[in-house]
Amino acid sequence: MEKTVSSSKAGMTYGLYLGVISIVFTLVIYLAGMVGESFVTWISLAISIGFVSWAMINFRDKQNDGFLPYKQGVGLGFMTCFIGGVISAIFTYILFQFIDPGLVEQLVQKGLEEAIQKNPEVEGNIEMVESMTRKFMNPPVMAIMGVFSSAIFGIIISLILAAIFKKDKPMFEEETQEAAEA
């Protein structure tokens, strides 16, 4: 008897797990005083890639009779990243809006310093650069950008990982089973 498993439901569940892991990671980075460090983004991306890989393998091998069609893998990976991104964005909003509103100012100043360091000519237009930076460095915009970037990243990584982990059902499964039994 063949069981039907919804990759959407599984994606929501794995997305919830990814969201919780993202919150824990963000808290560790926050408590360690490393918010805004560039290497943190790379670690976060690696965690997401690893988690989506695990979700696809686990879903294929333990919930879907050992099969993962490409389309189902893409949907599962996207849903995992999207739900995880929404949960992470909500926490990011809470962190920057309520827990530590001064953190936004720290990130703005750090961004301005890095911009001047990379391009000293920016110093002449620092007011304009600061104005643009402040437009994007506020909790609601950061949360929306977090969801959007999670969705885009989810699509890209899911297209790649689903191709790696896909395993289609044999086209003639019934005939193969009958031949093996005879």
Task: Please characterize this protein's 3D structure.
The chain has helices at 7-31, 38-63, 70-99, 102-118, 126-136, 139-165, 173-181. It is elongated. The chain has seven helices and no strands. It is mainly α and 182 residues long. The protein has a domain at 7-100 and 140-169.
The helical percent reads over 70%
Overall average residue pLDDT: 91
What would you call the structural class?
mainly alpha
Pattern of helices and strands: HHHHHHH
- Identify the overall geometry: elongated
Unreliable runs: none
Largest sheet report: none
Task: Offer a quick outline of the entry.
This protein has 182 residues and is mostly helical. The chain contains 7 helices and no strands.
Strand-helix topology:
Layout: H1 7-31, H2 38-63, H3 70-99, H4 102-118, H5 126-136, H6 139-165, H7 173-181
Structural features:
elongated; 182 residues
